[in-house]
Amino acid sequence: MKILVCIKQVPERDARLRIAPGGTSVDTSGVATEINESDQYALEAGLRLAEGSGGEVVALLLGPDGAEEAIRRALAMGAARAIHLNDAAFQGGDASATAKALAAAAGAESPDLILTGLQSDDAGWSQTGVLVAERLGWPSATLIMEIEPPADGRIKVKRELESGWFQWITLPLPAVLTIQSGIYPVRYATLKGIMGAKKKEMKKLAPADLGLEPGQVGAAGRRVEVRRLYVPEKTAEAEILQGDAATAAAALVDRLKKEAKVL
Amino acid sequence: MAGAIWAVTQLEKGEPKGVSYETIAAGQKLAAALGKPLEAIVLGAGARGAAEKVAARKVERVRLVDDARLDPYAPDPYTAALRLAVEAEQPDYVLFPHTYQVRDWVPRLAAALDAGFISDVIDLRADGGEPVFVRQPYQGKLNADCVFAGSGPRLVSFQAGAFLADDAEQGDAAAEIVEQAVDLSGVDVRTQVLDTFQEVENKVDLSRAEVIVAVGRGIGKQENLGLVEELAAALGGQVAASRPVCDNEWLPMDRQIGSSGQTVAPRLYLAVGISGAIQHLVGMKNSGTIVAINKDPNAPIFSVADYGIVGDLFEVLPALTAKVKEIRGA
């Protein structure tokens, strides 16, 4: 079984973010990065399925040179090889432009299954995986919490619905699944894995390699534009109660009783 | 009609889901800003009753796509139904609540229509006639003003709680309901539902609680939950949690507050050791009085709180419980 996992490199969760000159993007220079959290879970789910079926996982990433770090991590975790969509024309895209490029690259690989995280921790559109599915004309399912090995050309998955509800559904392969964080514990890369990753294939592709015009991808192909990126103004400033625990607790109870009148 | 704004109603057990009225409230604001008519569109099977409820709100008309293939929900027939309706009527904007279900099928619609889709929006305004949609990327740490580029239909989804259902104005009279005919006979429904279930019965309806003490990752381990339970007992409230606490199985999932749990608005909400990721905030930010106790002064939870204590919860909780018991004479 051939499984393609789309991953994204994002700033680390606790990273301090600076707005880049121009005011429409984050200055990523010197910012520590990681593989987007739910993409890590997608990678783990893909590796488990591949190990169970004697197949392989191919990692696919769109991003600049610096994103090679995320690709190396995916290879160290166990992906067999990687495709890096790396060209100036790919940069500055929205979910639509990025999905167009990912779908072209993924379709050319003819995998049985495409996995990706349910949303990115940076842009957070929660669209890309499903956009890729529609571009390829494949079925999709989102917020996946469990995957059973495929049988008779269909795959059975557990979806998370709203308000504590879940659903088992089946869908025919090839298909796209977006993975919810927490599906399986994510493995650490072993030293052997890290060493082995250096010998694995990392293919770099530009729009022309995918049969796409530069104007269809990246900033030129986007349908949504960020006009301004900024730190939100604090709307309500909490009153911070000072002092040691007992003093602060007493002040809080006093406010709740006399000011908020909730005690 | 061409140039209209559509607000899509999501059904749950045949009734309009509450967030659908929030979408209508957002639609009314966009319609006023752009001078365009607002229409609601209901997709479902046997959904006339739901359409009648929606028709009480101030909309030009309600479009009803009533087809047996739209129940149970599946992405293929929903995408086909709305794509056909949009192609026939050419609305300028199609608005949705940003629910899990919308995230499952509306990106398909966007790709099928080659439309722009601004998802998870918290506010909107018009700058010189051009609509600007505000969203919060980077886990809510930053705001982004977004605009559409290029032509074609424009899709927008709104975060739960960003607009209030009560703000969706009632109409002077019920709006007309128009049957929107779409032919779904050729649609291949590829996903098949086997079973829909709740893992835990929602034994506790936290939405009725007057006081909630919610606990997050900061509690460290399950053995420490006693501190939270004692405070909740002293306040006569319920214990709740953010997602990581339930993922670790320290508390059952029916105690979870947030986008994948329950939405609450008690008179008093205490968030203990909860940083305040947006997924949690959407489930509690409309609470009456919010108290945050956290060791990190920069935790986003303080931005929605009325009162805060920056400190070690293992010291603050016992002190707070003692003080509450004292004033309650217990």
Derived structural class of chain A = alpha/beta
Helix-strand pattern of chain A: EEEHEHEHEHEEEEHEEEH
Indicate the low-confidence ranges of chain B by residue numbers: none
Main beta-sheet annotation of chain B: 9 strands, mixed
Considering the protein shown, what is the CATH homologous superfamily of the largest domain in chain B?
Answer: HUPs
N- and C-termini, Cα separation of chain A: 61 Å
Might you state the CATH topology name of the largest domain in chain A? Rossmann fold
**Domain unit count of chain A:** 2
Outline of chain B: elongated
CATH topology of the largest domain in chain B: Rossmann fold
- Mean pLDDT of chain B, rounded to whole units? 93
Q: What value does the average pLDDT of chain A take? A: 94
Describe this structure in words.
The complex is a heterodimer of chains A (263) and B (330). With 263 residues, chain A is of the alpha/beta class. Chain A has 2 domains: 220 residues, Rossmann fold (3-Layer(aba) Sandwich); 26 residues, no CATH class. Chain A is 27% helix and 27% strand. In chain A, helix 2 crosses helix 5 and helix 3 crosses helix 4. Chain B is of the alpha/beta class. Chain B is 27% helix and 28% strand. Chain B is built from 8 helices and 17 strands. In chain B, the strands form 3 sheets. In chain B, strands 9-8-7-10-6-1-4-5-11 form a 9-stranded mixed sheet, sandwiched between helices. The longest helix of chain B has 17 residues. Strand 12 of chain A pairs antiparallel with strand 9 of chain B, so a sheet runs across the interface.
Summarize the structure.
The complex is a heterodimer of chains A (263) and B (330). Chain A has six helices and 13 strands.
Topology of helices and strands:
The complex is a heterodimer of chains A (about 260) and B (about 325).
Chain A: E1 2-7, E2 9-11, E3 33-35, H1 37-53, E4 56-62, H2 68-77, E5 81-85, H3 95-109, E6 113-117, H4 128-136, E7 140-147, E8 154-160, E9 165-172, E10 175-179, H5 191-197, E11 202-205, E12 224-230, E13 239-240, H6 245-258
Parallel strand pairs in A: 1-4, 1-6, 4-5, 5-11, 6-10, 7-10
Antiparallel strand pairs in A: 2-3, 7-8, 8-9
Chain B: E1 5-9, E2 11-12, E3 15-16, H1 18-34, E4 38-44, H2 48-54, E5 61-66, H3 75-89, E6 93-97, H4 100-113, E7 116-127, E8 130-135, E9 143-148, E10 154-158, E11 176-179, E12 192-198, E13 211-215, H5 225-235, E14 238-241, H6 243-247, E15 268-272, H7 278-281, E16 289-294, E17 307-310, H8 313-327
Parallel strand pairs in B: 1-4, 1-6, 4-5, 5-11, 6-10, 7-10, 13-14, 13-15, 15-16, 16-17
Antiparallel strand pairs in B: 2-3, 7-8, 8-9
Helix pairs in contact in B: 3-4, 5-8
